[in-house]
Specification:
single chain, 14-stranded mixed beta sheet
């Protein structure tokens, strides 16, 4: 399905109307007019890329997840388009922890009476009484339940249970028993590793029990260090399993291992290498589906913008980034930022992120760079507010209403703002629910998710709003064109110069990269589930 001519015209009109007030008309022999450049990017070309990503998923088991052939084919497609457009393309390899639940798990009480607990299926289409922990090992075991330092009834304050956090909690633990531990204090990985070391055949982690901590526990062990089955259960199920004389069967069928994947990073041949304008989007999908809105939409949009700008000499260097393993916790962007020297970080003056820009029940959201909404996290690095205002003016010029979205570090901009780089972007909503006010602003249906196919097999080319895609494509093209030629990029020019950064690198060694990665991880693990 192609975007309508009206939508294409809207993109062109928006770009022209926005850029011309911001930049003077170019005299003869001067830089190309950014407004004209932005007009060359049309939503129909973006849809062509989306159809290609859908074809790739169809040919590879319905997914483009990191570590799968579908991602490798997506990587090669994007790299090929960028090379043809004139970019110097780098495939940045890194190791990451891959996880897949191959079949539906089982949890059954075998004594004192039989009971079968409802599973959460691998595609997450429903939530049962229990769920396989991400990075659980595989196995089919039956054993007596051994409780480990449970607090029943739970304490009045959340996150206070120390169940399973110390090896001493497992003193006298009978080998082959199934450990039942409680959420709280330390992360799930520590609890599961301690159970494994004590000889447990499986580990069940129950929710803690305070208000807000009673539902089925869906979490991650962080990396593939646990080789026994590990499942999370609701507080009610855990309390039931804690009764004396209980035995259970636990079965999980998973692939949990270290694999290799690649970021795709493309540099233009033009522009000041000390003034880099970087755009990024994650290319990977979840295992459950093809990921056409999440995040084929952002990837396809910046890919087409890159194509339009590839052969145009720009004042500042453009860099287009396609991140891998975002769905497992921003791993590609974190690896990239942590791998840069302070000197190279200082050269990146602007980072623009686009993650889900065509949600079918969309809202037009702009990252709140200056914290003017006073919601959630604080402002981004200085200059982020200027980026926000550029996007606001774009939508205002089109007479399109818009609202803010919190700079919570949930997507790939997280490592960049942790490194002090002015950042911004647009977003059309994920699993969150559209408000009545947003229905008035944007149409659609209040009370329903912005993307009802979020992280599901139905996130296909049918799961795209053509209008949202066209509007955001125009916004991306406009921002890229403005900043490609800007003499005054957002933010103060007070981050370390290359010489100062080299001096800092010599005195701090490799700790800078590690700190950046850790900070980004703390701010928000992408789409990852809670760890404690």
């Amino acid at each position: 399905m192609r975007a309508s001519l009206g939508m294409r015209a809207a993109v062109a009109t928006a770009a022209s109307a926005l850029v011309l007030p911001l930049l003077p008309a170019a005299p003869a022999n001067a830089d190309p007019d950014p407004a004209h450049i932005a007009q060359t990017v049309v939503a129909s070309a973006v849809k062509k890329h989306l159809r290609k990503l859908q074809d790739i998923a169809n040919a590879n088991g319905g997914t483009r997840a990191a570590g799968t052939p579908g991602y490798a084919a997506s990587r090669d497609y994007v790299a090929g388009v960028l090379k043809k457009a004139g970019y110097t393309v780098t495939l940045q390899e890194f190791d990451f922890p891959f996880f897949k639940e191959n079949s539906t798990a089982a949890l059954q009480r075998t004594a004192p009476s039989a009971k079968t607990y409802a599973p959460t299926p691998p595609d997450g289409s429903s939530v049962g009484d229990f769920a396989t922990m991400t990075y659980s090992g595989s196995g089919d075991v039956t054993g007596a339940v051994r409780t480990v330092d449970l607090v029943l009834p739970p304490g009045p304050t959340a996150n206070t249970s120390t169940s399973g956090c110390e090896a001493a909690d497992f003193a006298g633990f009978p080998a082959g028993a199934v450990a039942l531990v409680q959420r709280g204090t330390c992360n799930f990985q520590v609890k599961a590793e301690n159970a494994q070391a004590a000889g447990a055949s499986a580990v069940i982690i129950m929710n803690e029990g305070q208000p807000g901590r009673t539902d089925t526990l869906q979490g991650t062990l962080g990396e593939p260090t646990v080789h026994i089955p590990a499942v999370g259960v609701s507080f009610a199920a855990g309390e039931e399993l804690s009764a004396a004389g209980t035995s259970v069967r636990v079965k999980t069928d998973t692939t949990s291992e270290i694999r290799k994947t690649h970021n795709v990073v493309a540099d233009s041949r033009w522009g000041d290498p000390n003034k880099v304008v970087q755009l990024g989007a994650h290319l990977d999908s979840v295992l459950a589906g093809p990921g056409i809105n999440d995040n084929g939409s952002g990837s396809a949009a910046i890919l087409e913008v890159a194509t339009a700008l590839g052969k145009i000499p720009t004042r500042n260097k453009l860099r287009f980034s396609f991140w891998s393993a975002e769905e497992l916790g921003l791993l590609g962007a974190e690896h990239y930022v942590a791998s840069l020297s302070p000197a190279d970080l200082a050269k990146i003056k602007v980072y623009l992120n686009f993650d889900m820009v065509a949600s079918p029940n969309y809202a037009l959201k702009i990252y709140d760079g200056d914290d003017s909404d006073a919601t959630g996290a604080g402002p981004g690095p200085e200059g982020s507010g200027e980026i926000e205002k550029l996007f606001e003016k774009y939508f205002d010029t089109l007479r399109q209403r818009h609202n803010g979205t919190d700079f919570d570090g949930r997507s790939d901009y997280g490592p960049f703002i942790a490194a002090g780089i002015p950042s911004g972007g647009t977003f059309t909503g994920a699993e969150g629910v559209k408000t009545p006010e947003e229905q008035t602003m944007f149409g659609g249906t209040a009370g329903q998710a912005y993307d009802p196919c979020y992280h599901q097999a139905c996130d296909t080319t049918a799961n795209i709003s053509d209008k949202a895609l066209a509007l955001n494509t125009g916004a991306i093209a406009t921002a890229a064109a403005v900043y490609a030629f800007s003499r005054d990029l957002p933010g103060p020019d007070n981050r370390p110069t290359a010489a100062a950064a080299r001096t800092a690198a010599a005195t701090t060694g490799s700790t800078t990269g590690s700190t950046i990665g850790s900070t980004a991880a703390h701010r928000g693990q992408g789409h990852a589930a809670p760890a404690q």
